[in-house]
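Module 6 notes. Inverse folding takes a fixed backbone as the condition and produces residue identities as the prediction. Think of it as a translation problem where the source language is geometry and the target language is the twenty amino acids. Below is one complete input and output pair. Work through it position by position during the lab.
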């Protein structure tokens, strides 16, 4: 059995440990990126240091490997993000796809970005090359909840026939070749699409004292959300975004291949000179178009 002095010493030791941990919690930390002091709730841990939330907010919204990144890797990404501001300023959208979150395409520059921001210069969305797209798919997330009612005892019971609410969200995932993230997954719909389902063997109605069987109700396996106009609209929107991005990706890659293909000397039909076509496929001497 411990003596009073031993118990007091044990309690003192525990108190000292607690105070040490408490002190460490409130210990001032310095941001390894900007050198500023990090507030109590502002620390963002890195693999080999700490970062303030102000610096963390400058990282790409598609980046999710902060805790496993070194200070050097974060500094590299922030330099990339700073250079990205010039790309945002030069971006000229020729095509806009989607609703709340939009896919914006600059067909002339062969670039695109995905953003829900209204102020692009402030949000600094990542501007990527269409040729950097490695794949594009969509998926539909479904939740099913039973709709219940309260009986005479105030208890929640199933309806007769049973009723269910199907809720849907629509997502597009663009996979890319980028040093800081591999994919961009975003929700296409601005609000959940909800469809109510009646489930049972049959439903009837009474007309003039005669019971009329209206028809069989769908089973759980037979329920088809395609009956809903809003569901079809967002599904079609997803299909369109995927198809257009992949089509533009292919066009951008074909242009790169054509530009890097070896050029052959041609005779200009205007000045008769033997010329190597320019980048715009024109005669280097008189500027005449050399055709396809």
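Target side of the pair, the amino acids:
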């Amino acid at each position: 059995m411990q003596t009073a002095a031993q118990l007091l010493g044990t309690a003192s030791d525990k108190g000292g440990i607690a105070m040490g941990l408490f002190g460490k919690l409130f210990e001032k930390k310095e941001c390894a990126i900007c050198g500023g002091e990090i507030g109590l709730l502002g620390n963002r841990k890195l693999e080999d240091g700490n970062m303030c939330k102000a610096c963390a907010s400058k990282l790409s919204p598609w980046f999710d490997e902060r805790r496993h990144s070194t200070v050097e890797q974060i500094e590299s990404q922030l330099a990339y993000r700073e250079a990205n501001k010039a790309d945002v300023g030069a971006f000229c959208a020729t095509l806009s796809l989607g609703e709340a979150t939009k896919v914006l395409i600059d067909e002339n520059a062969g670039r695109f970005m995905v953003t829900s921001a209204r102020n692009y210069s402030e949000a600094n969305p990542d501007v990527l090359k269409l040729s950097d797209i490695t794949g594009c798919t969509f998926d539909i997330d479904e939740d099913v909840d039973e709709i219940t009612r309260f009986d005479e005892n105030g208890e929640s019971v199933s309806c007769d026939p049973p009723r269910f609410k199907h809720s849907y969200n629509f997502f597009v995932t663009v996979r890319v070749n980028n040093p800081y993230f591999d994919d961009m997954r975003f929700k296409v719909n601005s609000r959940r699409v909800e469809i109510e389902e009646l489930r049972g063997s049959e439903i009837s109605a009474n007309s003039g004292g005669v019971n009329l069987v209206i028809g069989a109700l769908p089973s759980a396996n037979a329920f088809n959300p395609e009956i809903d106009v809003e569901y079809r609209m967002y599904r079609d929107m997803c299909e369109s975004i995927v198809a257009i991005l992949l089509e533009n990706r292919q066009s951008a890659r074909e242009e790169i291949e054509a530009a890097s293909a070896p050029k052959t000397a041609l005779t200009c039909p205007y000045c008769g000179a033997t010329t190597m076509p320019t980048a715009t496929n024109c005669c280097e001497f008189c500027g005449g178009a050399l055709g396809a």
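Reference fact for the lab report: Residues 77 and 83 are 10 Å apart (CA to CA).
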